[in-house]
Amino acid sequence: VKLSQLGEFGLINLLSKEIGKSSSKVAVGIGDDAAAIKSLPAGRHGKNNKLLLITTDTLIENVHFKLKNTSFFHLGYKALAINISDIAAMGGNPTFALVTIGANKNLSVSKIEELYRGIKSLARKYKIDIVGGDTVASPKELIISITLLGEVEKDNLLKRSGAEVGDAILVTGDFGKPASEKFRIPHLPAGRQGSEFRIRLKEAQIVAKFRLATAMIDSSDGLVRSVLEICKASQVGARIWLDSVPVAKDATLDQALYGGEEYELVFTVPRSKAIALKTLIEKQSKTRVSIIGEMVSKKNAIKLVDVHGQVCDLKSGGYEHFK
Ligand code: ADP
Ligand code: MG
Asked: Is 229 a pocket residue for ligand 1 (Cβ < 6 Å)?
């Protein structure tokens, strides 16, 4: 069987079976935005309410970006930003990072320095210490891989599982801009998007702090995909109200639903608390929050519903590697 037949998600499924059950120290293992571990030392008063978070993400030349025209500053910025987004989606705070670079020997040193300036600008902003990494030769393409640690108060932890029938689905910001830019301005270097990358750490921490949400994910693989992941992890179904989806300027509804790469937050909240939480986040962060649907029973699967109440078909959504 080839990887292209299995796809990224099929492969991760297979691997997680191979890896098997994890120890009791693992609060959240494979299958969420970051892993959560009960291993931080006890605090001053002998008890510890925090979990250690760990996540890793990789950018590869010609898969995630093209070297030609790419700003190395923004590439570095993006490599760290996508990891911060995963820590944020758990309700946590980023702390320490390891940075691995695989580069061709002919690449100019100044480019790598520029890449690090991008990483460091963001690390400084969020008070993340870069504490190590690895540097290796790559026969051809450039590889940037970052592992990011974080921490979260146990009661603030938000997983993909936890959503319940009757919960409302809320999202920050809008969707479809990266997909529409790729379509409209194909020469736009992927690395440039880094500068416009909205990191929803503050918003995520507000969601976590109020402890009203039941599940959360970041929308890296697209809005529909994110709702699907919450449904899978929570054993529920969902209805997405198409006229409530916040579509970015110049983007189509399809791009908003399936485009991905916008790293917004998608989270679920008991229906009776949804408007209150939306208002709180908007007040405290100035970021728009939209209620785009509801969780329903698992047997109803995921459905898209238009203004007339008509149910539309779901395209298999989001980006998947190897496919
Ligand atoms: P995200 O898009 O939030 O970074 P991914 O879709 O990349 O999440 O990964 C989904 C889950 O699968 C995560 O928990 C991740 O740690 C896990 N995972 C991905 N690749 C592997 C692998 N090769 N081995 C073990 N776990 C993996
Ligand atoms: Mg994620």
From this structure: no
DSSP strand E in 219-318: where?
237-241, 265-270, 289-296, 302-305, 311-312
Provide CB contacts within 8 A for 56, sequence distance 6+. 83, 145, 146, 147, 148
Type of residue numbered 36: A
Q: Is the CB of 31 under 6 A from ligand 1?
A: yes
pLDDT for 102 beyond 70: yes
Has residue 322 got a pLDDT over 80? no
- The verdict on the CB of residue 12 being under 6 Å from ligand 1 is yes
> b/e map of 270-303 (b: 16 or more CB within 10 Å)?
beebbeebbebbeeebebebbbbbbbbeeeeebe
Using one digit for the tens of pLDDT, what is the confidence trace for 118-162?
999 999 999 999 999 999 999 999 999 999 999 999 999 999 999
One-letter amino acid at 129 equals D
Ligand 1, residues 30, 220, 261: which to mutate, most atoms within 8 A of Cβ?
Answer: 30
Q: Is a pLDDT exceeding 60 seen at residue 186? A: no
Q: What is the pLDDT of residues 255-308, one digit of tens each?
A: 999 998 899 999 999 999 999 999 999 999 999 999 999 999 998 889 999 988
Ligand 1, atom 7, residue with closest C-alpha: 57
12 CA to centre of ligand 1 in angstroms: 7
